[in-house]
Amino acid sequence: MSTHVDIREVALRDGLQIETPVPLAAKLEMLGAIAATGVREVEATAFVSPSKVPSMADAAELAAELHNFPGIEFSALVASPNGAKRAIAAGLRSIEYVVAADDTFSRKNVGRTSAEATNQIGEIVAIAHDNAATVEVIVATAWDSPFEGPTPPERVLSIAASARNQGVDRFSIADTIGTATPGRVSSLIAQLRPVIGDLPLGGHFHNTRGSGLACAYAAVLAGVTRLDASVGGLGGCPFAPGATGNIATEDLVYLLTDSGFDVDVDLPAAIAAAQVAKEAVGHDLPSALLRAGDRIRT
After folding, report:
1. Angle, in degrees to the nearest 10, between helices 81-89 and 121-129
2. At the fourth CATH level, which superfamily is domain 6-290?
3. What angle do CA 41, 165, 222 make, to 5 degrees?
4. Which pLDDT band holds residue 236 (cuts at 50, 70, 90)?
């Protein structure tokens, strides 16, 4: 029996956060195309300051439409306890909270040091659990910071230990600026395992420097079975210089299925969704399969 890898589609949040705001109708068209791929998890939006991330200003309006897509577990990113309260009020029951491993990026991203952000995990967990919701902590800049250079693994391990002690439900590591390489990915995962115990571990990789898919594959070989991806390779981080290029969902599906892994996402439907995303943002996207198509022609 082949190993199953869960793919969370992040185009609607991570994918659109650096774009000129896309109308709600276009987002819903993207969501319809994404839902048609068979994906079971979708990062729908972010409850953050509209002044910092204008493309997420319609978070509550988008959340109000999610009931039209049954069978998908929707999550939303938050940057504070107040954001968690807003997400819960909008009906989300899966929350992602990002903690940067370096202080400079953390201050630019959320206005707090890494330690201050870590210390808020417990409050966010309490808000979520009091409302039958779950919390995933995602460590940004897990391998490198655009401002401070290589991230000492001890910083990630410390955040992981604190997250586990404060009762989070899932944990993930993110290559925010797309600088990780397979060996460093495998090494960090091996160090994390004894720290997080039985917490589900996910990975979020960017293809900025061409190594994102290789890192995702290394993560799967190291036992990670939850990966984020974005149709078309849409996305990047507005607070990290040059941080563009999520791994494309269709490229990841091609790699995994052709390597014998099982996924829920249908490849032709993912390519079609990437085309919808391209039309929504009005420019070319970095996806390889969007340009070349599958190697198997029907």
Report:
1. 20
2. Aldolase class I (3.20.20.70)
3. 50
4. confident
- Checking phi first, is residue 210 left (phi over 0); if not, alpha (psi -120 to 50) or beta? left
Tally of CA atoms within 13 A in the half-sphere of 66 that contains its CB: 25
Between 34 and 236, name the one with better pLDDT.
Answer: 34
In the chain, % of residues over pLDDT 70: 96
> What does the DSSP 8-state code read for residue 274?
H
Location of structure tokens 């397979």: 182
Tell me the pLDDT of the chain averaged across its residues: 95
Strands 170-174 and 201-204, bridge-based pairing = parallel
**Number of residues in the chain:** 298
**pLDDT score at 41:** 98
Is 237 among the catalytic positions?
A: yes
**Does residue 243 surpass a pLDDT of 70?**
no
Which residue type is seen at 30?
Answer: M
Candidates 121, 180, 237, 240; catalytic one: 237
